[in-house]
User: Fold this.
Amino acid sequence: MTFPYKIIDLTHPLSPTIPTWDGSCGFEHHLQHDYQPSSTTSFRTHRVHMNEGIGTHIDAPAHCIPGGKTIDELNLNDLLAPCLVIDVSAKAHERYSVTVADIEVFEEKYGLIKPGSFIIVRTGWEKFWSEPEKYRGNLVYPCVSVDAAQFLLKRDIAGLGIDTLSPDRPDEGFPVHTTLLSAGKYIVENIANSANLPPVGFYSLALPIKIQGGTEAPVRLIAIGE
Ligand SMILES: [Zn+2]
Assistant:
């Protein structure tokens, strides 16, 4: 029997040329051993060297909160969540910060955000993904205001995702990280394909590589729905 739901991949492929936080190569992928045509069974193997926070990845509370949950301690019940998309792409510019009003507009249309939801903020910045310098933008890109983060916390969300490097612009500090991670929530950055998602009605599943003691990890983020 085929799986009766639609699956949307919200994950960027990892490669050495993708945008990274510090502009360096955060992901190295080396051929270690190649097929041997002369033998009946042969293998190709690679070696990977990467930052935890590479590509589409998750931040666990321990990323900025000492004693917070690490990647391996995240609860699967939180990682599988109703997925809501707040789309501000029509107005988001590089210095745009999602406001409480943006969330209220969403709630007027689709109802109150339910506890345990995963909120994806769609800024449209993903369109620069294949132009790493532009996407990185010297760390200026659309993000989320601290007021909006606090509002989402009142709604008791499971986590927040965004299609930029971060929901915070470093020249304004990291209040969204601090607000959400200190409350035990998670953050997913560099989300792909959110334009393919309806605003409501899907579930998201964020599965990080289970790194013991890790504070961030690449995820395969998918959405499932009808
Ligand atoms: Zn982060």
